[in-house]
Amino acid sequence: MTHRPNSVEARDIAFQLHSYADARRHEDVGPMVVEKGEGIYVEDLNGKRYIEGMAGLWSVAVGFGEKRLVDAAARQMEKLPYYHTFSYRTHGPSVDLAEKLISMAPVPMSKVYFTNSGSEANDTAIKLIWYRSNALGLPQRKKIISRARGYHGVTIASASLTGLPNNHRSFDLPIPQVLHTTSPHYRTMHRDGEDEAAFARRCAQDLEDLILQEGPETIAAFFAEPVMGAGGVIVPPEGYWDAVQPVLRKYDILFVADEVICGFGRTGEMFGTTKYGLQPDMITLSKALSSSYLPISALLINDKVYQPIADESHHIGVFGHGFTGSGHPVAAAVALENLKIIEERELVAHVKEVSPVFQTRLAQLSERPMVIETRGVGLIGAAEVYHPELSKTPGALGLKVNAAFLDQGLISRNMLDAMAFCPPLIITERQIHDMFDLAERGLDAVASAP
């Protein structure tokens, strides 16, 4: 008989492979086991309480332990625990949620397609873009452009869109149809004497140069987050979107706005699309859609995208794509209730009210040793750290700071050496101060260590 370890930690090490972890290191250090959560806090198996400064994975908008979402899930489980949306079938929650999302959309949209994660939503967007190109008799128009340091997921196609080397290394990615253009990170990418406006214009020119180099007739779409999240919380420089969008329109290139992190209030508007005046043809949504209480995501497409796809499915006789859990009734019911909470409690207005405190305290971290840049908008931000010795290995300093934050009772996430802050939208001004007080103590502890 195989021996089964007794503790949760030991069983985890024995049986589970973790995302975004060094598997060998995990065998040595083991996991932190999170046992429960309430509001902006979570508690580990040993009873230690933490401020969840990342809202889980950028996603628990209404906080942990929201009973209305638990009750919504239970009611739907009793009524209809599962059904699908294949082959001319549907159910009430998916219809209601699709209608709700179309009504909320920041620009006119025609249809919603449900998936289970942001990765799947972006992956599906690529498939629909290729399908549409074939429907229009443009089989050569298949290339997709995204940006260095962008993050769009981890499926084969969406990981190819992602512009982070460690999402490509040893996975044989990116696939050939995906190209990457300049990251809009002003501090690391600008040239001497180039202000933000000039840098933004050069980013747009780099994009146009890539389009011309590849051939405009081969470029189908451009994917971008309104504000880059997992690539380091990169806020677009002044004039960036005003310079980029005309390039896309000039060459009739579809624009896909990845709102997986920005959507539902994070930037101080319901959508990042509104915050930056974007005009996308497709929008991907997830995370705060259900506050991640259950997996669900959505792809919104406008009529320009939908009509050729509908024609092609009619020509073939079927739209040959789908997921077992697409529009899952329980996940859809939870998402609907979550959106009600966001609206009823006016959480977007709350973000606008408290974000000046958040951004002020974030900026004040630059007064700490090792912090070389802070950047953010709304209730999302990052503090980048540097040390001449510890930064020789990218990410090594970030890991130390992350561990110091945990010791203080704060959960952050180091993206190499950028420390992210993305708390639940319900966070209060007092709790913002508490969070950054812990961050300051953690940074000071690392700076003073021998």
TrEMBL record:
GO terms for molecular function: adenosylmethionine-8-amino-7-oxononanoate transaminase activity; pyridoxal phosphate binding. The keyword Transferase applies. Keywords: Aminotransferase, Pyridoxal phosphate, Transferase. The keyword Transferase applies. GO terms for biological process: biotin biosynthetic process; gamma-aminobutyric acid metabolic process. Its cofactor is pyridoxal 5'-phosphate. Belongs to the class-III pyridoxal-phosphate-dependent aminotransferase family. This is Aspartate aminotransferase family protein. It comes from Roseibium aquae.
